[in-house]
Design brief:
174 residues, Arc Repressor Mutant, subunit A, two-stranded antiparallel ribbon
Length: 174
Amino acid sequence: MARTDKPLRPIREPVPLAEPGADLGMALRQLMQTFRQSMDAGLRARGLDLSFAHGMVLRTLAREPGISGAQLARRTTVTAQSMNGLLRSMESTQLIVRERHAENRRTDCWYLTNVGLKQVEQAGEVVDEVMSRIRASITRADGTRLVELLHKCAEALSDASEKNPPRPQRRVAC
């Protein structure tokens, strides 16, 4: 940071920026935040001792049994440290179990249990309710178009990341 002779002064007046409603990134963030809050509230209302993050882990394990904690962290966009704590707490409540990787002693493979599967099924009802509220707020055509546009946005970001790929990540098969 360049050093100036003038002391730092706080900006006390609002700075004109683009309206958050017109900012796609802010709109996506707000949608995701309210989606998570709605999911957490729905899970609590049903007496399920799960959070949105728990649900994401369970759903991921239902689709991809035996993946590692690092892979779970990437797929659910949480830090490895947070995922480690999440996995340990879910293991202690018997929602998931771990097994040692056959070839890599430092890697654990994670699996859903029958208890966890029951929770996924109950949480699925909450997901359906929240998604119904979203769908009720827009027309079917707008919903279809929104999905198309979101896929287009994701593709645009994927294309950009392929031009500047992150360092390769080793896939650990369990």
